[in-house]
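Dear Dr. V.,

Thank you for agreeing to look over these. As mentioned in my earlier message, I'm a first-year student in the group and I'm still getting used to reading structure tokens, so any feedback on how I've presented them would be very welcome. I ran two proteins. I've put each sequence directly above its structure. The first is here:
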Amino acid sequence: MDNMDASELLTLQERITRLEDIEAVRALQARYQRSIDHHDWTAVGDCFAEDAVSAYDGGKMSFNGRDAIVDFLRHALTRSIKSSHLIHGGEIDVDGDKATGIWYLEDFLLHKLFFVKLHGTAVYHVDYCKVNGQWKIKKIGYVRNYHYFQLRSIVNLFTLR
């Protein structure tokens, strides 16, 4: 460290800050996915910037503003639906107070009332921004690779909690 001049130290600090930002974005995306599956709508809302926009399923379900996005998710994923939204990868690029992420999604949904199971994959594209020093989702959307529905039997309904 004694042999470094001020410009080298600044570069090191910038690199550390960038890595910290990447990890903060990764944690934010994981918190969003977990909060959806646990129906924690307050926590889901905390993941978004106030003026966020969404374009789920290739834009078929698009909403403007944090409240509209959370309201859609709350009504789409009722208590009668158990879900698991697993994200993989995480190609994150940070540029100052903005970032982008590409995530591979694998989701499973079990509907307790209609005996239907959905399994699918998609690719999320997400824009992030810092609001008061905290990373938030600014724009989110996914495009499906595939999904399929399957009727469930009454027997495996009893194993669902």
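The second protein is here, in the same arrangement:
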Amino acid sequence: MKQYKLVAGPTTSQILAKEGNNTDAVKNFESIISQQAQNGWAYHSMEPITTSKTTGCISKTTTVSTFYMLIFEKD
């Protein structure tokens, strides 16, 4: 039976920290995947997860964040 493990990837704001530099974003994901592979986990897929947080009493502000959940598997 396969086992699955979910690992949160970098947030959108972390990925966009250096505007126009795709290399940093790729290296972030590569690092996570490599680290999990060393522990016997094989990369399966990635899914975006969107969360929201509302703050304030009178003038409510909702902040929406997107991050990526990396899914790994092993037998």
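From my reading of the second output: The chain has a mean pLDDT of 85. The longest strand covers residues 42-55. Does that match how you would interpret it?

Kind regards,
E.
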